[in-house]
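Same chain as my last thread, 398 residues:
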Amino acid sequence: MNDKPLIVHVLYRLDTGGMEHIIVSLINATCDRYRHAVIALTGFGTLRSEIEDVVTTCLSLEKQPGKDWPCYFRFWRALRALKPDLVQTYNIGTLDLAPVVKLAGVHRLVHAEHGRDVTDPWGDNRKYHRLRRWMAPLIGRYVAVSADLQHWLVDCVRIRPSKVTYIPNGIDTGRFDASRGRRRPRRMFSDFAPPGTVLIGNVARLDKVKDHAGLIAAFMLLRDEVDGNSGRCRLIIAGGGPQREELERQIAQLGLTETVRLLGNRDDVAQWLAECDVFVLSSIAEGMPVTLLEAMAAGLPVVATNVGGIASVVEDGVTGTLVSAGDPHALAGALGAYVADEQLRRQHGEAGRTRVAAQFDLSTMVAAYVALYDELLGRPGYAVQSRMRPGVTRRREN
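reply #2:
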C-alpha cells in the first residue's frame, strides 16, 4: 500500500493559464512526497500532457453550463473512489463543491484564490462574499497568492485571519537564463520585427478582464505620439480566448495589421520572451500574474496596470512602470519611455530578473505548500510558515 498522501486538485478547466501552470509545477515538484490527482469540471487542454505520467488520475466531469446538479454527484462519486487525504479547490468556480468534499468523507480542504472571476474583477460582489463566508467552516485553509488577495479575504470577505495563508506564486527561473543573451538577432520574429525594432510582448488570455482593447489603443497612441519611433515598434500578443475576433477587427480598423500580431496559445514562452524588449500587461484585475514573473525572469522591463497583486511583483521605477488601469494614454507614455531608451530597458530588466530570482523562485513556493500540506495532514517535521503579513487586521471570523 502506498503511504504517500493523495492530494486531489479540483479546478474549472486544466488549460493554458497562469494558475494552471502553477498547479502543474506544484504537482511535478512534489510527486516524490505526495500522490496527486486532478479533477477538472469542464475538461483539459494541452497542459494535461505535462502531468499524465505523475498523477494518479486526470478526470473531467464534463460539467454543463449553469447548475449541473448531476455533476455534483459525479464529483462525490469520484472522491469516494479516490479516497484522497486532502482536496484543494481553485477560485470561485469550484468553491461550492466544499459541501460535497465533506459528504464524501474528506476532512482536509484547501481553497486557493489565484484571482477574481471575470464577472467580479474588483471583488465587490456581495453574493460571492457570502458564498466564501458560508463555505469557510468547511475549509481548513484559504491560500492567497498575493498580499492584495490576502487583505481582501480578511478585510472585505471577512474570513478569519488564521485561516488565510499567503503563498506567492513561483517559477523555475532557470528556464529563462538563456534570455540574457537576447541581444542576438531574432529568429522567431525576424520577419515581423527586423533589427532596430522594439518588440513589445504580452501574454494573457484574450478576455475582457485583460483589456487587450485598451492595450491596442495604447499602441496606436504610441505609434502616433512618440516622435521618431512610429516605424520601429511592434506588438505581439500570445493567448487565446473569447475576445480574439473582436480584437482582430479592432486591429484591422486601426490599420495595425502590419505592426500588431495575435499569436494564439504558445508553449514556448521562454524562447518567445527572449526575443522581446519590453513586456506589457493591461489588465483591469489580477492576482499575481505568472506571466509577469516569467517576463522579469527573462530580463524584460515591465509596464503594467497597478491592480491586484501586481505592485508586489513590479517595483515601480526599479523593475518597470505601473500605470492606472483603463488609461491608454498612460500606458502609451510608459511604453514610449522604454522604446526611446535602451539603457533604461536594460537597467530595469536586470533589476527585475534579480528580484524574481530572490523572491519568486519555484522552490520557495513549493516549500510553502509542502509546509501547509504537512501541517494539515499532521505529518511530522513540517515547517511553520507565517500566515499573516503586517497590516492585516482582524474582522468577523468564519
